[in-house]
Amino acid sequence: MTTQTATPTPTPTAKPPLRVITTILHLAALGVIGSAVLATLSGLLGAGIGLLFAFGVGLILLVGLVYALFGIGWFEVARVGGLYRVDIAPLRWRGSGHPGFGGWLRSLARQSIDGRMWRALANFAIAGVFGTIVLRLAWGLVSSAIFAFSPLMSDGPVDGMFGNSVAPAWAPLVGILGVLACAMGVLGLALLHRTISLAIVVRSREAELTERVRTTTAQREGAVRAADVERTRIERDLHDGVQPRLVSVGMTLGLAQQKIDDDPETAKALISEAHTSTKAAITELRQLARGIHASVLDDRGLDAALSALAGRSHIPVHLDVRMEGRCSREAEAAVYFSIAESLTNAAKHSRASEARVIVRIREGGTLWARVEDNGIGGAQVQPGGGLDGIANRILAAGGTFRLDSPQGGPTSLEVNVPCAS
Length: 421
Prior knowledge:
Blueprint: H1 17-50, H2 57-84, H3 100-112, H4 115-148, E1 158-159, E2 165-166, H5 171-200, H6 205-259, H7 264-292, H8 295-300, H9 302-312, E3 317-322, H10 329-348, E4 355-362, E5 366-373, H11 386-396, E6 400-404, E7 411-418
Parallel strand pairs: 3-4
Antiparallel strand pairs: 1-2, 4-5, 5-7, 6-7
Helix pairs in contact: 1-2, 1-4, 1-5, 2-4, 4-5, 6-7, 6-11, 9-10, 10-11
């Protein structure tokens, strides 16, 4: 489940002569390799379709084709962004958010129809065509320059570039005109490539606003679902845990009140039992409160909160937290409660004997966490369950969530949340 944050439309910088020269060099390089790359992709597609039913070989080739297309699209987006100094988000693989082989197939299907990848590929193909023309024009420019000086090497008529004969007096003029025409053609293609690339690869303001609305809507829906799951959990814990215990305390105290005159010893035993149940209820309420809000998280940060969480865990937890500075409260809370729910699942359902928690702040200001256990695996996201609450909480914070829990284990959970969420 992947959420991308929209950014304002990039504004390219001015076009200095060096940028135009660099564009021409880019086109020349693409003119050399572009045809070979496109031919290879076409060959992969043809071979994949032709061998589709040959022991699955065709499927392997088609899967490789999708990855190759993604790689070329990623390269093209990075090339255009670096060439024109525009802030373009890199092309990212479109994960499905579902675990296992089925999730991988879904992500493969989503990536194969990704419009942004195909726009980048279209720009790559156009640049390859432009590059081929640029190479021809460059050769024409050199030939025209040589033709302009040809009268110095011959007194008779000079053979023109198109098989015709030109008088020596006209050869310099024809050569200079050829040089100018080829140079203008190369310059025009470079400027046209810039216009087309920025129009195809860089999204318009309308597309940015549409993406921002979609992202905001998804985050709001995730927040609403996370709140529903959390409220249901609190109601369940109160109804199934604390409430029956408090009812039992009341009944025990009532019996003690009836026996306090006739049977003081029994009454004392009942009061002692009620006292023990009251302390257990207080403990459950304290744990329930921690599940709603962890005060240590605000006071001392995520590292200290996770240390306290690991100390209360029913299974040994190896904690590896390396953070320089702090993230936003929302980001730290989302990661904290995701780890807490994962450790609870590992202790209750996974039959794990130990767990490992790794937390890092990655480049780009992303808070990343991974929880692993050595249990039996088979964990799935069920509507209304704890993992569903994790997924919705992470989505509401603008992050991503990935669960890998094959049958037989182990189980691993990874979350990424922007620090400024």
